[in-house]
Amino acid sequence: MPETTAPSATFSPLYQQIKALLLNSLQSGEWQPGDPIPSEMELAARYEVSQGTVRKAVDELATENLLIRQQGKGTFVASHHSEAWQYRFFSLMPDSGKKAPLKSHFLSCNQSKAAAKIAALLKLTASDSVIQIDRLQSVAGQVTVFEQIWLPQQRFNGMTLEHLESWPGPLYAFYESEFATHMVRAEEKIKAIAAEATIAKHLKLEPGSPLLLVERISYTYGNKPVEIRRAHYNTQQQHYENKLN
Amino acid sequence: MPETTAPSATFSPLYQQIKALLLNSLQSGEWQPGDPIPSEMELAARYEVSQGTVRKAVDELATENLLIRQQGKGTFVASHHSEAWQYRFFSLMPDSGKKAPLKSHFLSCNQSKAAAKIAALLKLTASDSVIQIDRLQSVAGQVTVFEQIWLPQQRFNGMTLEHLESWPGPLYAFYESEFATHMVRAEEKIKAIAAEATIAKHLKLEPGSPLLLVERISYTYGNKPVEIRRAHYNTQQQHYENKLN
DNA sequence: CAGTGGTCTAGACCACTTC
DNA sequence: AAGTGGTCTAGACCACTGC
Prior knowledge:
homodimer; alpha+beta; Chorismate lyase; 26% helix
């Protein structure tokens, strides 16, 4: 007499296994950001499954924004270099509606032992080093953002202030090209706080002015946290936009 | 010799047409929130397409959170009454991590002509009336939210303060049961502001304290805006949480 | 015209729920 | 055992891109 309650606690459909294999190829760098992955027919042959099964695996990775499908052309590894991704994770919009471009001004880029809080968030040990970047961002000539960024030193080894200042595009494109680190998702915690003196000075505001504090953890492939941000937004002319579905 | 560039600007796949039909049935109230919709086989027969085509249409509505699939049981119309949806659209979390339940205290519920701004957001004309609700919300005995809500009078006809006070659950469940209005999605704009005197008093804070201002537009079926909220959050013990994918 | 992703079908079988 | 959603296949055809 067989068991009455089937085990099956570990049932995993084929397409999920294919998805895991595709993820491996992305994580290992077999396919680089911006590059096309093999066609569905080729993948089906490689993994010895039907095209429909590959399709479902790719579909999920596409809705997770790891892959980009383009009918007639192919399926591509998502990249922060593409036009459409410039504002990937950037939710601040002008109240007026017209987007003005952002301008970065880097203040510093230093290396040190990780503070306990930062080490915990990045899942580092107390002996590991981190790189800290401070910068300002301006919208339409107005200083709007003061931002502190922490990165694991090991992954971003060799980053310097000069290096940052000579990079023309967004930071995430910089990480991708120069440090082979592509960001996949992020989590943010938001508060309203009163500006401290030093930050108020940077943003040309009175101390005590209300600021939006945005703390972000960004993850690369495999749910690995690789960047901490602590940003202060002046939201007098801007607002943080969010869609709830 | 046929045209070189095919027209086809209006090509719409079958499953999209099925999706539109399903949406009609939801919007018309043929299937009520919480109820099961017909099985995939029945729908396939009704629309004279294959099960796979129905499936793809239902899949999209499920990922848009309009339908809920449950293997072995059926597919159900999403409802704000279900446990899992209590915190639909509510992004405020205690810093400590443990969720405490919310308690509502309604201050007023009045009817008046719509102000120009509100009328525009709700897509009403200047002669239309709106209902305005003011309320406070407390977390763990602490007054945390002051909220103003505007609703089109026509759709929410007959709402009173007593009515609101006697309702035990979340507002969106109230709208759903009492006014046949199910919310499908929402958009929020967030700023940090200094508390005005009257609001500070409600939240038991000093005037000028930093508050999170959250302005929300909620939509029902057919992208129809039917609720405006203007909420002030005290984020000393709480934060607004957001996941970027 | 060939190659890519996108749609649609029909049928078989699996996993889960309910009776 | 019957009914539901979930997976997988094989094959045909469509829409779009680029050569």
